[in-house]
Amino acid sequence: MLTIWGRINSHNVKKVVWLGEEMGLAYDRRDVGGPFGMDEAYRTLNPNALIPTIEDDGFVLWESNSILRYLAASHGGEAFYPADAQRRASVERWMDWGFSWADAIRPIFFQLVRTEADKRDAALIERSVARAADLSAILDDVLGRQEWLSGDAFGIGDIPVAAYANTWFQLPVERPSRPNFERWYAALQDRAPFRDVVMIPLS
Ligand SMILES: N[C@@H](CCC(=O)N[C@@H](CS)C(=O)NCC(=O)O)C(=O)O
What tens digit of pLDDT does each residue of 30-56 get? Predict the structure, then answer.
């Protein structure tokens, strides 16, 4: 049985749980991090004191994108993780780009969701919204040429960007029109695991 440690309102935990659901894996998720804290046993598993961490048949792994790659490679097969080097790299490029995208969204999320209204930094929010809007043009461009970030079919290349895209679309900010990016976000919502795991209220 796969164990996933991490509170479900964490973007990086959502990514892993979402893939587990897409792949129909049996898993046991345990709340760690944020208000749940981290005990010494957890810090021994993950010396970064961050979530998520998984344990699969005695194998312990942290770093959410590495976990996605591992689960896709070990349990998902070609449908989730292409064997061809160039196709695989094209998928992984979006997973890694997802951290730039996350860096743009994170300050807006922390400010508008986890900071009291009178303590918010309006300039930081404005700068971050402008940065995310610029980056969304890159997504709009690629999604005008291919259906998914992973290519012709949904795959792990979509997951990291989508976890934060959901937050971007849920936050009360002004977003420029990006029709291809919006089409992709609508298509994600046809997937039950995306709705159930990712589209939970922001907290
Ligand atoms: N690069 C790491 C980042 C992990 C990370 O920053 N996790 C956050 C939650 S999204 C965390 O552990 N925060 C501390 C906490 O929840 O207590 C990964 O992708 O796994």
Answer: 999 999 999 999 999 999 999 999 999
